[in-house]
Write a structure and sequence with these properties.
- The structure holds 2 protein chains of 2 kinds.
- Chain A is globular.
- Chain A has a two-stranded antiparallel ribbon with strand order 1-2.
- By secondary structure, chain A is mainly alpha-helical.
- Chain A has one domain.
- Chain A contains 14 helices and 2 strands; from the N terminus they run αααααααββααααααα.
- Chain B is of the alpha/beta class.
- Chain B folds into 2 domains: about 5-240, P-loop containing nucleotide triphosphate hydrolases (Rossmann fold, 3-Layer(aba) Sandwich); about 255-495, P-loop containing nucleotide triphosphate hydrolases (Rossmann fold), CATH 3.40.50.300.
- Chain B contains 17 helices and 24 strands.
- In chain B, the strands form 6 sheets. Chain B has a 6-stranded mixed β-sheet with strand order 6-9-10-3-11-12, sandwiched between helices. Chain B has a 6-stranded mixed β-sheet with strand order 18-21-22-15-23-24, with helices on both faces.
- The model of chain B has no long low-confidence stretch (mean pLDDT about 85).
- The chains are: A mainly alpha, B alpha/beta.
- The interface of A and B includes residues 213, 214 and 231 of A.
């Protein structure tokens, strides 16, 4: 049992180490910047510390909900690159249905509730379409299928909204979306954004599902060997379809927070490329695109790491956000290659040892 | 010139937790065929992989032509003229035979590949091994035997001095095997040294000059083939003598458990009808490709039959059925390819065993580790699975023990009707006897067993009744008593090739 635990935590341990290293580097940079300021007789800014990091975390978590859904998909060895577009479509449907209901004379509260349901339902439908296509057409790669649906969903967004930006200025009910993103609790004197609680809540549900129930076992069984799972009585198609639906729903959940972050406005070109962040977070978290392995704890850690990296590189080293992506990409590549590199090194050592023993005996 | 072309002395290879080779030695003369025999898990594959540079040994030395060599990667082995052909030819099915042969060492004219020359040279090589197809044929369109000729030609194109043949006849018919034998002999006479790995005694006695036995990662001994007989080799492989190889008990045949009526699937099989009773072992045999596996896959709900009915315990099963539905009716299928279809190789025995009944291993909504452990420990004990614990990865087990895990999965699901598709394929002699014993025990407990098999001895000795399939339909049903092999083979032959 003990051995199993250590195995499970190995990747997660590495992520913790990475987080600590980043933190130490950023802290040191922050201190040296402050020292420079003080030397010039100005006040220290202290831009990087725990409280500030926690406060500013929200913006880096917009895709974290998508990432939880994506974890299910990658765990099965599939991929869904349509989630960014699904999210925007869900938000568009929400905005349009809200406007239609308000114009039709429905009370604001009722209209808002219906609009949110419509948003979630749209996400589910997007996932359903993906799932149906993936399970019915096994000869096509999920990557290609969801590339198609991505364009399809995005096309619908433009069809509904065109270049228009949907906004409901002065509508307090609709404005609640802003609070969803801006809201914060005070825990022990520290202001913590609400979005963190939402994320941890969802992550807990996903953790339980993936690691403590039979559903998770079936999911990894499919990812590890789909054929053997089928022969073992797992209803593969049905299960996979359901997971795609959940993934679509999580995209819709992400879109609620995104709309909140964008001053409660909806645009057809919103959240472009978010699927890539979601995939990146999940892969760094220890899920393999081959399926069969991964842990939600790793995903949580990697969401934090991405946030810290973006914040640190941006505010402390003054890189533009687009340049920061370069570093994020680099970390991702190194992290995915690490297991292979380790194996290669151990092989080299073995060969070297052999040469040495031969030399010694000659 | 040294006496031996190749000497491998005191080779040791340790994988995490397992000693795969323990002080193993082997030598090979120029122009001989040397068989390596042993049960699955004895270390044959690992040994070959240390020779071909896939694995690095942790101890010992490899001496080629009197010179010490380190096989640091497969390319080094290739440069020294060591080539291997495997039972599943690792070729590129969409490329032509010539392209497959010269891949990696093409004839270049400036920056371009000269396919004219490649085709010509490939044809020469193919002719020299007696191939009857053009070098331009795409490999995917060739039969398994022909694909092996391509592999041999490829080895020759690299000037192989040592040719390793790993289970070369596993997928070949008797006639194709004979042809392969004569090619192997021809190569030997031309001075190529051949290492032969095979489970088939016909191969070993028909071909080899010497035989070396491995057992449990140890070297047991080397003998000239004329000093050996089958019984003696088996004794060395297993470590003790095998008593009753086919322990078929007479059992009380009970009620009908399974009836299949006029099952058809266009292009695969047609009008297939058979039944199975409690306590009965029924053999379903025929040539490879006769449609046997396809029939049981349609019964099990992996594929969909076009027409026909299936009755389990007298109850009609819906046409739209799934493996889950069949398993809930206590119908289990042990698939043909246990590594791809039967097991999650990177999973423990424990997780493999519990998967078919995972929904029952719970406390409320949560997985119950204890229930899983109890179940898999029970199966491990019942089936005598050889492993340190149920936490062992199933991929680390020998073929026979892997098969037992797959059987364990069926038994965990309370199966009463069990279909075994080639249950002893790639399984060593000792485990075979254990699997036969197990089948006999299960039948005497009232289970119905349908065994698909191409191996005549097990079909004839284990079955109560035998169905023979040929070209997608059942040609004959036999009572096993007093049956001869010729009667079965005649029924199995495709109609137009008869006589």
């Amino acid at each position: 049992m003990k051995k199993k635990l250590s195995k499970l935590l190995r990747w997660e341990t590495m992520l913790v180490v990475l987080l600590i290293v980043l933190w130490v580097v950023f802290e040191a940079r922050d201190n040296s910047l402050d020292a420079a300021l003080l030397a010039k007789g100005r006040k220290a800014k202290d831009v990087f510390n725990f409280t500030k990091m926690l406060n500013g975390m929200g913006v880096y978590m917009l895709y974290s909900f998508m990432a939880l859904g994506m974890a299910l998909i990658l765990g099965m060895g599939d991929i869904d690159i349509s989630v960014g577009a699904s999210a925007t479509l869900s938000a568009s449907v929400m905005g349009i249905s809200y406007r239609a209901l308000i114009n039709g004379g429905t009370a604001n509260g009722t209209a808002f509730a219906i609009a949110i349901l419509a948003c979630l339902l749209t996400g589910c439908l997007c996932g359903l379409l993906n799932g149906l296509l993936v399970t019915r057409f096994r000869e096509l790669f999920p990557m290609i299928i969801t590339l198609g649906t991505q364009l399809f969903f995005r096309g619908f967004c433009y069809l509904f909204l065109g270049g228009e930006t949907l906004k409901f200025d002065g509508d307090a009910t609709w404005g609640q979306l802003k609070t969803l993103y801006n809201g914060a609790f005070t825990v022990g004197g520290v202001k913590v954004p609400t979005i963190i609680f939402w994320f941890l809540g969802f992550a807990l549900v996903f953790f339980v599902f993936l690691h403590l129930t039979t559903g998770g076992r079936k999911l990894f069984a499919i990812g590890e060997n789909r054929t053997a799972a089928l022969y073992s009585g797992v209803r593969v198609d049905r299960f996979e379809l359901l997971m795609f639906v959940i993934c679509g729903m999580m995209a819709a959940v992400s879109s609620l927070f995104y709309v909140g972050s964008a001053s409660a406005t909806v645009r057809a070109d919103a959240m472009t490329g978010y699927e890539m962040y979601a995939i990146a977070v999940v892969v760094l978290g220890g899920f393999s695109t081959d399926g069969g392995k991964g842990n939600i704890i790793g995903v949580i850690l990697s969401v934090i790491i991405f946030g810290v990296m973006k914040k640190g590189l941006g505010t402390l080293f003054g890189f533009a956000d687009s340049t920061v992506n370069l570093a994020v990409g680099l970390v991702l590549i190194v992290a995915s290659l690490l297991p292979n590199i380790m194996e290669d090194i151990s092989n080299r050592i073995r060969i070297k040892r052999q040469h040495v023993t031969i030399k010694a005996s000659d | 010139m040294a006496e031996y072309l190749l000497e491998m002395n005191h080779i040791t290879k340790i994988f995490p937790g397992v000693k795969a080779l323990d002080d193993v030695s082997f030598n090979l003369k120029k122009g001989e065929i040397h068989a390596i025999v042993g049960e699955n898990g004895a270390g044959k594959s690992t040994f070959i992989k240390t020779l071909t540079g896939v694995h690095q040994p942790d101890g010992g030395e490899i001496i080629l032509d009197g010179e010490r060599i380190i096989m640091s990667d497969p390319l080094v082995a290739q440069k020294h003229g060591i080539a291997a052909i495997y039972q599943h030819a690792a070729s590129y099915p969409d490329l032509s035979a010539a392209e497959n042969i010269f891949i990696g060492h093409e004839f270049m004219v400036g920056p371009f590949v000269s396919w004219t020359k490649a085709n010509r040279e490939a044809q020469k090589l193919l002719d020299s091994v007696g191939a009857n197809f053009p070098a331009t044929a795409s490999v995917g369109s060739l039969s398994v035997a022909q694909q092996q000729l391509v592999e041999i030609a490829k080895a020759l194109s690299q000037n192989a001095r040592i040719l390793i043949m790993d289970e070369p006849t596993a997928a070949l018919s008797k006639r194709e095997s004979e042809e392969l034998y004569s090619i192997a002999r021809k190569l030997r006479d031309e001075g190529v040294a051949i290492i032969l790995i095979s489970h088939r005694f016909e191969d070993i006695f028909g071909l080899a000059d010497r035989a070396t036995v491995f057992r449990d990662a140890h070297y047991i001994g080397t003998w000239n083939i004329d000093e050996c007989d089958e019984k003696m080799l088996v004794k060395h492989m297993v470590g003790h003598e095998i008593g009753d190889f086919f322990p078929k008990k007479k059992t009380q045949i009970g009620e009908e458990l399974l009836r299949v009526e006029n099952l058809s699937r266009t292009g695969y099989f047609r009008d297939v009808s058979f039944n199975l009773h409690a306590g009965e072992i029924v053999g379903l045999t025929g040539l490879v490709g006769a449609g046997r596996t396809e029939v049981v896959e349609a019964v099990f709900g992996i594929t969909k039959a076009d027409s026909g009915e299936v009755y389990v315990n007298g109850k009609q099963v819906p046409h739209k059925r799934s493996p889950r539905m069949m398993m809930d009716m206590n119908f289990g299928l042990l698939p043909e390819d246990r590594q791809k279809q039967g097991l999650h190789l990177r999973w423990s025995i424990n997780h493999n065993t519990s998967l078919p009944v995972i929904d029952e291993c719970t406390n409320g909504i949560f997985l119950s580790g204890k229930k899983e452990y109890d179940l898999s420990n029970k199966m491990k004990e019942l089936l005598a699975i050889k492993a340190p614990s149920v936490e062992t990865h199933s991929g680390a087990l020998s073929g026979g023990n892997q098969q037992k895990v797959v059987v364990g999965k069926q038994l965990a699901a309370n199966t009463r009707i069990i279909v075994l598709d080639e249950p002893t394929k790639g399984v060593d002699v000792g485990s075979k006897a254990q699997i036969y014993q197990l089948m006999s025990d299960l039948a005497s407990q009232g289970m119905g067993i349908l065994m698909i098999s191409s191996e005549m001895p097990e079909v004839m000795n284990m079955s109560d009744r035998i169905y023979v399939m040929s070209e997608g339909h059942i040609t004959k049903e036999f009572k096993a008593e007093g049956l001869t092999q010729e009667e079965i083979l005649t029924a199995a032959m495709p109609a137009e090739r008869e006589g």
